[in-house]
Amino acid sequence: MTELFWNQHAAWPMLATLQLLPLAGASLLLKLGERPLATFLGRAVALAELLLAILLYRLLDSHATGYQFAERLDLAGPLAYHVGADGVTVLFVLLSALIVFLITLYGLVRGLAEPARLLAVTLAIQGVTMSLLSTLNLLWFVLASGVELVLVGHLVRHWADSPERDKAAARFVQFQGVGLAMLLAGTLILGWSHHDTSGTAWTFDLLDLAGRPVPRDLGVVVFFLLFYGLGVRTPIFPLHGWLPTVAQHGSLAVAPALLLGVKLGIYGLVRFVLPLLPEVAAAWYPYVTGFAAAGVFYAALLAFQQVDLRRLMAFAVVSHTSLVVIGLFSLDAVAFQGALLLAANFGLAATAMMLMTGFVYRRTRTTRLDKLGGLFDRIPLIGLTYLVAGLAIVGMPGTPGFDAAHLVLESAIHRFGALPTVAAALGNVAAAGFLLWAFQRAFLAPPPAGRGAAIERAAGMESLIAAALVAVLLWSGFHMGPWLDLVDAPLRALAERFGHV
Amino acid sequence: MSDALTWLLLAYPLGALLVWLAPRPEAARAVALVAHATGLALAGLALAAFDPGRAGFQLAARAPWIPGLNIHYAVGVDGLSILFLPATALLFLGVTLASWNSVRELPRLYHSLLLLQAGATLGVFCAVDTMLFFLFWELSLVPFYFLVSLWGVGPLRGYAAAKYTLIMFAGGVPLLFGFLVLAFNHAGLGGGLSFDLAELLAMPMSDRQELVVFLLLLAGFAVKMPVFPVHTWLPLLAMEGPVAVMALLAGLKLGAYGLIRFAVPLAPEAAQSLHWLLAGLGTFGLLYGAVAALAQTNLRAMLAYASLSHVGLVLLGIASFNLQGVQGAVLQLVNFTLAAGGLFLLTAFVQRRLGSTDLLALGGAAKTMPLLASFFLFFGLAGMGVPGTSGFPAELLILVSALQTHTGAGLAALFGMVLGAAYFLNLYRRAFLGPVVQPGVAQAVDLQARELALVLVFAALILAFGLYPTPLLEVIRPAAEAWVGRLS
């Protein structure tokens, strides 16, 4: 692994700006308090961040291997500020910036309490997310995850309408805390092992750690600590217990979109776990994919039984995340490409579905499926966006889900044979089943008897958000080439560690 | 002329966008009509530019779509597919006219969805890259889902729409895997991944691989055709869906087209060794559909089972693997677009007048609606294959080839024809003849000018091709000869 420092090819440290801009914006917003200027400023910062992400995408040389725009500053001992970006980073950075920008617009229409403070917390989370995405230091990654956990936990609890929001927040913190502890333990063992075998000072730097493989027995322990630590966050079956409660009783749309839109768990696997422990991953992949395949069906089965749209979404996320894991652990370049793009696609589509659910909730004050219905006549664009997002999750041709799923299936056939792959594809048909069913009950079914006033038509900003999401989904779906190119070089390099090209 | 098909495929989505720009709903449907007419004109131009003397794909266009996987936007037509372009465009135009006044809710959405559906359906007929074909194949599900669940006439329309869509999604899985196996096989021979139909046709395959590919593709297409026992969505949809839109389902048998275009040519050996399966499925579907149609008391349900019976006959024609058989199959598919599509359009007119197509609400309808009743009979006779209609040459070709290759199945098919006459004429008698009992029938008005003009076009084409089918057969012949040539 090589790196190219920022002063060799950029005018200013872009990655630092990317992290600091939202953080600075957040603290400014907190100072300003609840006044109109603050919310305007918050959206301006989110837009600037999106433009910055696009600029980063333009400047990145996607054909070069190794990390670009690197910055390095030694802090306390093994904890160093060390960042760098490759195509994978940029893909997630773009996604994250887009999602946060849409959330700031969404907050505008939803009429949530304390909008400026919500924007401040959202921006702070974005700053930390950018840090997580760009860091090359594993310990930094773990510590930043801890900060993010606190911020998201606050968001989950503070902007929820449900009386059970304390339970939701508690469940979130418990699960994530355990995951974080496992992640930290795995990280420390890695650092210690490196110190022990090389005799040099402690380090958690990706470039150092990757240069010296961990002994096999220890590697297994580290692998599962890191894998399950990230698995809680992702979430993958059977570590998903927090998600349904948080989705149902926590803050609607904003927190889930920030948590699930950018699949940091998957990113962590690609950035740290797979490069650091290729042999262990190659030895244990049947177990991981076995659990993932079970997860596809288990979550789909539970999704069919839900009576609440938000809980249903939670199980949908678990089901499709399992598919990403299957793709990732097919362990070759095509599969990595497919899995990562699938993760990005699912993130964007799930965000779209959650924001649309938020718009529905604004009108109905409930997300129970039997209390919804009859919405399509009044808000067709919102319904259509929900469906397009659902189709993207199912992997309909014309959405980014199709090409990505296609790549995943192709390598899964090579790795696992045709029958398990067909089974996984059928699991996806099950996902089509419950998403379509949910759409039908929420939007197309006859309206419930007791509904009082007519459903309000979509506001301009709602239509704008919906149209933007559909446009991005369809545009990237029909024109996948640039995204495939973007992640090609780094994932090829990763695949070489597994002996396949 | 190589852009002719691209323009055709672009015209419909463009029209779907323009529908939203129209100032009033009345203007929107006019825009939709103009778009469909433009599409029909473009399809006619493509037919005019088509050289019937040549086999192989014409009017071809090609551009990279997903270069990393060697997937292309590749379109082209040959004698097996060119006739479907004007037929499809005409049927969609008919559906638009048939729902001219009956769509009151969200008319813009309805017409734009219909246009998108038309674009996707034509794409299915034009695509010569397997992934592009799959794209259009799956895309055609989405507008249909909305058309059924929002404008369906039955109380279970939501269920019917979801059932159809899910069954089709499930059917898409073996289809996709069949195409993937082909692509892998191409890569295994050192040529890299390929989804191009011409390249795949030229590729040698082991018997085992052919068998796998054929069974996967057959499973995918059988669901769409439909073939017994995966046909249950069809009668349900016919009862629940919007009546005019159902003309698309009965008139466009995409599954049979897929079998002719992809499954048999890509795996010729396997297809031939499984001829008994195809002929058996065809014969059974033919008889089962006819018997089930006998028992129906609703025009729509009867037409749905008749459609099942029809597609059985087409399957039998394909299974004979000779020139007459495939010529007859393609001709029969075109005939169904006119005859079965026309019947459903007429049924839509009945539904619009009486609010029902059940026998209980009908009876003696010929007294007050003589024109409608006459055309219904004429289209029904065309569906049966009576001489003088376009069904006759098609059915004759299929029967002759079936009697040669599968004598027993051919005899069974003959018996099926008798059943076909029985179910149609029996239901026709009870619906249209006899005394008028229902007040709704007594007050019903006959075909209006717009409706009459529409069915006249269909009837004229049926008559013309029935009396003089040679031009159609000449268009099909070179491609059909090439198709048969691959088999021996």
Protein architecture, described:
The complex is a heterodimer of chains A (501) and B (488). Chain A is built from 20 helices and three strands. Chain A is mainly alpha-helical and 501 residues long. Chain A has one domain. In chain A, strand 2 and strand 3 form a beta hairpin. In chain A, helix 3 (36-59) runs antiparallel to helix 4 (87-110). Chain A is globular and about 75 Å long. The relative contact order of chain A is 0.10. The two termini of chain B are 34 Å apart. Chain B is mostly helical and 488 residues long. In chain B, helix 1 runs antiparallel to helix 2 (25-49), helix 9 (207-224) packs antiparallel against helix 12 (254-266) and helix 11 (243-251) packs antiparallel against helix 16 (323-354). The radius of gyration of chain B is 21 Å and the shape is globular. Chain B has a domain at 274-488. In chain B, strands 1-2 form a two-stranded antiparallel ribbon. Chain B has helices at 4-21, 25-49, 84-98, 107-126, 130-139, 141-151, 157-191, 197-201, 207-224, 233-240, 243-251, 254-266, 268-273, 275-294, 299-319, 323-354, 365-368, 370-384, 391-405, 407-432, 439-443, 449-467, 470-487, and strands at 58-66, 71-77. At the A-B interface, helix 16, helix 17, helix 18 and helix 20 of A face helix 5, helix 6 and helix 7 of B.
